[in-house]
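Journal club prep — side note

Before the paper discussion, L.F. wants everyone to see what a predicted structure for a comparable chain looks like in token form. Sequence:
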Amino acid sequence: MNKYFPAIILSLFLMVSFSACSKSDQTADRAIDEAVPQAAAESKEDAVATEVAANMYLFKLDGIFEDWGEIEPLWEEGGAEGQGAWETNIDIKQVYFKNDNQYLYVFMKCSPTIEERSKIEKSSGIVGDLYFDTDNDPSTGGTYILMWDAEKYKGYEVRAWIPIGIETWSGETTVYVGYELYMAEGGSFSGLEAYEQDSHKKGSLIAHGPDGIEMALPLDKLGIQMPTTVRVLLAESCNSGEEEGYDVATLSLE
């Protein structure tokens, strides 16, 4: 055997190994080169999607009042002043409305806010109700309602119930707010909800924050076509049954 044969074999082995490593490195580099712009593109797409979603709404739904500063409240004091019999009730203060061609937006300033309440009371509850007379005709809509002061609720086509919910997952408790829309069917609101939103779900049309509750009600779900005038009833839960616990006003939508 040639005395140089082992050295030649070793050299060939090293050359093959180096070539394989080089190709592997090139493949890895190429994968990185392809992945970086792809990741950047996906990140840009996510950012654009987020921006588009944010621009879908007239207001950013976050429970922060600053977007509403130039809008006059429909009610300076929602319902009666105070929290009623229980300190854990939500007192509705000023209530604001604004619309675009898809949504009716509502901002409720509250005391305490859902955030403040959740620090002392981790339980469900009720903020109140909004009733909409979508044809502005008291002779149509709900006629049979088993509630306090039932006469006050007659003539409305849609009820927006605003409950406070609670969810416990992996030992962590979350308090949230939602709304449920009920249509007057057969003169009653006793059927199943026609539409529901909860603030703890991604992309929800209701939120709570440091100033109160902010929501967007789809006009098509309310059965509202613009331009129109609707009658709105606010029934504050913590003062339900009391004469001053209700407010009625007319809202012009353009």
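L.F.'s comment for the group: Residues 4-10, 12-24, 41-54 have pLDDT under 50 and may be disordered. Keep this in mind when we get to the figures.
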